[in-house]
Structures are given as structure tokens and as C-alpha cells.
Design goal:
This protein has 14 helices and 14 strands. By secondary structure, the protein is of the alpha/beta class. The protein has 2 domains: about 140 residues, HUPs (Rossmann fold); about 180 residues, Argininosuccinate synthetase, chain A, domain 2 (Alpha-Beta Complex), CATH 3.90.1260.10. Helix 7 packs across helix 8. The protein starts with a strand and ends with a helix.
Length: about 400
């Protein structure tokens, strides 16, 4: 495959740092480095100088934090999507946005190919490439990890060192990390042994819960139609709101998850995640739904959430099914408006209050006092509800027991 000009999804980390010179050496092409700020913080500083120093012909840094929060994270939050019960989809949700911005730059600058630094074992290669195919199928796709002779992170470090390329990873600190507004993930190195207990120094966003404040802190989150809009009475933009909750949750050690997940290609992978603000939002929204969604809607949303999470995790963000789910969720969440208060303490986030102008909760009906409810009505309901069980008595195994008894 030939390529004249390639737009590279650039982070300045180990993989993309070595990919720029590798592309030039092996394809003889120009390389446009495209960095998308989805909340990496200080990681974006110095990227332009580094990209040019390693051979890029052009560099773009796109601030997409608010778009990421509003159009990507909030839909996932509203859907209740959590992969395999624990993973809040921080990396998975960022990839389609990064790919979209990369494609936009590629088309605007006359590139005939796009490239990424994802390994041939991971999920991200699928997420990036499905997005490329959905948005610009005419662009060629280059995945160096599936082509070059580098087979380990140690090899990549050696490649960088031989060309005088500084990288933020050393053989003494071998973790692969991904950071954005929603989370910080840790993979690789000693974590590849699922029996290894993570070192305290590895965590960056959350304090050790045992060292968290001895006094609980309450935080109140307001939602409108399923989307968070304020923290402790203060209206905030989507990105600022998440950043604020990250700080609050992080200082109480909230949001750590250590899990072994099933990757799309079939490999089991161990990852440790820090998602303080996201954890608070998930807990709060679930509590608000408990008083604003009817039973059937709530149960159906649970079923959809599992499938929605798979679509996001598998890289099918730009799929018709996800669009249909979004429409369904938006309709269902129209009245999920109100406030939830959480009490944070030593890594925990306990719901202590939930209120809504659209609450379906009735104190009269819920009370042990028989106000507004005739207990006699339940007799007929229970008899009809048990009709299949009474029928089974005549034809099932209990019928045999009945004959023996006679």
C-alpha cells in the first residue's frame, strides 16, 4: 500500500512518538500529527514541539473537551452503559471522537491515509478503524503495530532511544495509561499478572480510600432530562462539571475499579481504572431514575444498557442501532429531572437523598399505613398472577407426587 500524506492520531506517548519516524522511513510520506484534547490535562503541553521534532510536517491540537462531555460521555451516562458491570467506558467513548476529528483534519489537509498507534491485540484498533470506515471509507488505514518488527513496549523504547526520541515511558515505569475527562486507565507491566496488587504510587486521580478524610462530605448533583447540569447548586458546563466531580470524588478515594475484562477479539485483559466523577454521576443518576421511571421503562432500560455498552466497547459508535438506542433513551429520560445528594466517605458514595418534580413515588402508597390503598384488591391480583403455578400442579412433577401420596 502506498501513502503520500498520512494523518496520525497523535498523543505524544510511546507508540505515536515512534510512529512518525517509522512512517517516514517505511512509507516515504508526510505525516500530519492530530492531537485531540479530551481532558488529558498537562499531557497536551509540548506536543507541537515534540511532533515537529520527530518529523511531522504539520500539527493540530483540537480542544474537544466540552464536545466530548456533552455529545459522547453524557449519552453513555444516560443510557446507563457499563461494560461487564464495572467498566465505565472511558477510553471506549473517547475513541470515536478522536477518530472523527482526525478524519476531518485528514480530509481538510489532503491526506490519503490515516494511522493510529493501537496494538494488534487491543480493542482500540477496532474502534478507530470502524470510525474511519463509517466516516471516510476512501481513506487508507495504516496500523504500524500490525506491520513493523517491534513486538513489545521494550522494543519501542529501544527504537525511540536509537533515534533520540524522548518518551514518557521507561522500562522502570512500564504502565500504559490513557487519561481523559472521564477516567485514567492503567494497563500493562506488572498488572498483566492478575494476582499482582497495584502499587499505591500508580494511582493519580484518587487518594487511597484508607487515607481519605475521616469526615464525610455531601455533594448534590442536579439533572435535567438525564443530563447533569449543576453541582452543589452551581450551574456548570459539561466538562467543568465532570472536572469538579473528579476533584470531589478523588479526594475521597471514590471510583477505583480493578477488573479483568473480555476484549472484543477474545483476549482477557486486566485493567485498573480511576473514574471518580463518573462514578458519582452513575450512582446519582441511577437513584434519580428510581423515582422518575416506571417499572417497565426501568427494566427495559437495564436490558438496553448492556447492549449499548457492548456497542460502545466494540467500536460501533456510528452504527444505526446505537442511533436508535439514543433516540429511545432520550425519549425515556425526558422526565428524569431533579437532584440527588451523595455522602462520600472512604471510597464510598452513598445516596442519601433524591427529589424530582416528576417523581412517581407516593408516600401514601409506600407507607405501611393503608392510606389510598385497599389491601383486599391484592387477593384477586395474586390469584391471577399465580394461575400458571396452579396449572403446573396438575401436569408437572408435583402431579406425580400427588398420585404417589394417594
Amino acid at each position: 500500500m502506498n501513502a503520500n500524506k498520512v494523518a496520525l492520531a497523535y498523543s505524544g506517548g510511546l507508540d505515536t512518538s515512534v510512529i512518525i519516524p517509522w512512517l517516514k522511513e517505511n512509507y516515504g510520506c508526510e505525516v500530519v500529527a492530530v492531537a485531540v484534547d479530551v481532558g488529558q490535562g498537562e499531557e497536551t503541553s509540548g506536543l507541537e514541539q515534540k511532533a515537529y521534532a520527530t518529523g511531522a510536517c504539520d500539527f493540530y491540537l483540537i480542544d474537544a473537551k466540552e464536545e466530548f462531555a456533552r455529545e459522547y460521555l453524557f449519552p453513555v451516562l444516560k443510557a446507563g452503559a457499563i461494560y461487564e458491570k464495572d467498566y465505565l467506558l472511558g477510553t471506549s467513548t473517547a475513541r470515536p471522537l478522536i477518530a472523527r476529528k482526525q478524519v476531518e483534519i485528514a480530509l481538510a489537509t489532503g491526506c490519503d491515509a490515516v494511522a493510529h498507534g493501537c496494538t494488534g491485540k487491543g480493542n482500540d484498533q477496532v474502534r478507530f478503524e470502524l470510525a474511519y470506515q463509517a466516516l471516510a471509507p476512501e481513506l487508507k488505514i495504516i496500523a504500524p503495530w500490525r506491520e513493523w518488527s517491534i513486538v513489545s513496549r521494550e522494543d519501542a523504547i529501544d527504537f525511540a532511544a536509537s533515534r533520540g526520541i524522548p518518551v514518557p515511558v521507561t522500562k522502570k515505569d512500564p504502565y500504559s495509561r490513557d487519561r481523559n475527562l472521564w477516567h485514567l486507565s492503567h494497563e500493562g507491566g506488572p498488572l498483566e499478572d492478575p494476582s499482582f496488587e497495584p502499587e499505591a504510587s500508580m494511582f493519580k486521580l484518587t487518594i487511597d480510600p484508607t487515607l481519605a478524610p475521616a469526615i464525610p462530605e455531601k455533594v448534590t448533583i442536579a439533572f435535567e432530562s438525564g443530563e447533569p447540569v449543576a453541582v452543589n447548586g452551581k450551574q456548570l458546563s459539561p466538562a467543568k462539571l465532570i472536572q469538579t466531580l473528579n476533584e470531589i470524588g478523588g479526594r475521597h478515594g471514590v471510583g477505583r475499579a480493578d477488573l479483568v475484562e473480555n476484549r472484543l477479539i477474545g483476549i482477557k485483559s486486566r485493567g485498573v481504572y480511576e473514574t471518580p466523577g463518573g462514578t458519582l454521576l452513575v450512582n446519582a443518576l441511577r437513584a434519580l431514575e428510581s423515582i422518575t421511571l416506571d417499572r417497565d421503562s426501568s427494566h427495559e432500560k437495564e436490558r438496553i444498557a448492556t447492549r449499548y455498552a457492548e456497542l460502545v466497547y466494540f467500536g460501533q459508535w456510528f452504527s444505526p442501532l446505537k442511533e436508535a438506542f439514543d433516540a429511545f433513551v432520550n425519549t425515556m429520560m425526558a422526565n428524569v429531572t431533579g437532584e440527588v445528594t451523595l455522602k462520600l466517605y472512604k471510597g464510598g458514595a452513598i445516596v442519601v437523598s433524591r427529589t424530582s418534580p416528576y417523581s412517581l413515588y407516593s408516600e401514601d402508597l409506600a407507607s405501611f399505613n393503608m392510606r389510598g390503598y385497599d389491601a383486599k384488591d391484592s387477593a384477586g391480583f395474586i390469584r391471577l398472577f399465580g394461575l400458571p403455578l396452579r396449572g403446573r400442579k396438575r401436569i408437572g412433577p408435583f402431579a406425580v407426587e400427588e398420585k404417589i401420596a394417594k
